[in-house]
Amino acid sequence: MARGESYDVWFLAADTVYRGVPYGVVTSWAEQGRVSPDDKVRPATVANAPWLRAGDHPRIADFLFRAADPPPQPGDTYEQLQAVEMDVQYKSRAEDDDDDVDMIPLIDISLVLLIFFMMTAAVSALSPVEVPDMKNASELSKDADAFTILIDKRASGETYFALRIGESLAPEDNNLVTPEDVLRRLDARLKEVQKPPEVRIACHKELDRSWVRDIARELDKRKSKDQIAFYGAEVNEKK
């Protein structure tokens, strides 16, 4: 298109002619529908140029406004469309393919178990150790010469040790201060007997059971040397 090209436009419906209309304005009118295909145009710079239908003009016809196809009317026949099967597979989203295990419930259960075991261990540590009843207690009770190592406490709460032979308790074997003292008295009494005696440990229920374990360990050494026949332990229920 030459610079400054213009056209004369003849609107047939209004029987009005616009002269020297720039080409860009003419095409804009055509796009807006103001210029119909039956209106006529001609170059404004060519003298006595013939009029030409806008719908037939090679440079304007493509810009003419065209209304959309009218909607179908009753009675119109159309080709029936057949259903078409398409081989399309559904692909799940990335979130659906997430197979990660939710660890939050597992962590909660682990913490609950940890707290439970910690509380159980704390309660067990504070609970007193129950010493089982002495084995072979019936046999010991029938032996009049059986030795009994007593671990008892006085009314003031002080702990003392004693060595009883049968039902008799000699003054030198009573009111001993430490386990070593009662073991020394035991060794002295073992030298006086003809055969290895039976020995039992009787501990007050409210006293520390560690003394029972320590004395039992020493008695086991003497049993291995055949100095005593056998030994056992019992809890003295006396308050």
SS-based class: alpha/beta
Query: What order do the strands of the largest sheet run in, or round the barrel if closed?
Result: 2-1-3-4
Mean pLDDT: 79
Total strand count, please? 8
Report the principal-axis shape.
Answer: rod-shaped
Report the span from N to C terminus: 126 Å
State the helix count.
Answer: 5
Instruction: List unreliable stretches of 5+ residues.
Output: 136-141
Q: Considering DSSP H and I runs of 4 or more, what fraction of the residues is helical?
A: 25-40%
Q: What Rg do the Cα atoms give?
A: 60 Å
The main pleated sheet reads as:
4 strands, antiparallel
**β-sheet strand percentage:** 15-25%
Q: Characterize the quaternary organization of these chains.
A: single chain
H/E element sequence: EEHEEHHEEHEHE
Report on this model:
It is found in: Cell membrane. The chain has 239 residues and is α/β, with parallel strands linked by helices. Among the domains are: 6-63; 137-236. It is 28% helix and 19% strand. It contains five helices and eight strands. The strands form two sheets. The chain has a four-stranded antiparallel β-sheet. It has a four-stranded mixed β-sheet with strand order 6-5-7-8, with helices on one face. The longest helix is centred in the middle third of the chain and has 23 residues, at 104-126. The radius of gyration is 60 Å and the shape is rod-shaped. It starts with 5 loop residues before the first strand and ends with a strand.
